[in-house]
């Protein structure tokens, strides 16, 4: 290792002390990383939900995870209703002449969905789903409101 073999300051022509300190510093960093990156993990069988400090991350491929998804469509013009099943994704398209109203919190709060507006929601991952009763809608509040609702479950 011949880094900075300077002849203009102390230890002229000899950078051994500097090199030695660099190597000691690198070894210190390595020791710290080894302490932080090692983790004792016990795999419990059968596998189930575990706290993060006792779990092992795995990746499932499409070949390992099989799930049948059913597409559905609802044309809604004369009801205030809710989706009574779990769903992986859902879409609301307002196609009437007046605003429809939709809720994403089990019917506690509604927001207007203007005509020509579409909202798409996706639960985000393998087998992740929105629970039944999450989504509500109203088409009776405003005359002319209409929704096309599509969802996968």
Molecular structure report:
By secondary structure, the chain is an alpha+beta fold. The protein has a domain at 71-152: Jelly Rolls. Helices cover 14% and strands 24% of the residues. A hairpin with a 7-residue loop joins strand 4 (100-103) and strand 5 (111-113). The longest helix has 22 residues, at 16-37. The N and C termini lie far apart (63 Å). 12% of the residues are buried.
Termini gap = 63 Å
Question: Uncertain spans, ≥5 residues at pLDDT below 50?
Answer: none
Mean pLDDT: 82
Beta-strand content: 15-25%
What pattern of helices and strands is seen along the backbone? Answer: HEEEEEEEE
| CATH class type of the domain at 71-152 | Mainly Beta
What is the 3D shape?
elongated
The level of helicity is 10-25%
* Discrete helix count: 1
CATH T-level fold name of the domain at 71-152: Jelly Rolls
Tell me the Rg in angstroms. 30 Å
User: Structural class, from helix and strand content?
Assistant: alpha+beta
Tally of DSSP β-strands: 8
The largest sheet has its strands arranged as: 1-8-3-6
For the biggest sheet, the summary is: 4 strands, antiparallel
The CATH architecture of the domain at 71-152 can be given as: Sandwich
């Amino acid at each position: 290792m011949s880094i900075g073999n300077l002849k203009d300051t102390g230890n002229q022509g000899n950078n051994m002390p500097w090199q030695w300190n660099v190597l000691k510093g690198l070894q210190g960093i390595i020791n710290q990383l080894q302490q932080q990156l090692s983790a004792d993990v016990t795999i419990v069988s059968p596998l189930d939900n575990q706290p993060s400090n006792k779990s092992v991350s795995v990746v499932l491929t499409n070949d390992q995870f099989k799930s049948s998804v059913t597409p559905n469509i609802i044309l809604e013009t004369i009801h205030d209703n809710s989706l009574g099943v779990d769903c992986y994704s859902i879409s609301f398209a307002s196609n009437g002449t007046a605003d429809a109203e939709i809720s994403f919190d089990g019917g506690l709060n509604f927001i207007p969905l203007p005509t020509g507006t579409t909202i798409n929601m996706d639960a985000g991952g393998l087998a992740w789903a929105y629970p039944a009763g999450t989504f509500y809608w109203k088409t009776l509040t405003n005359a002319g409101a209409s929704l096309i609702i599509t969802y996968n479950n």
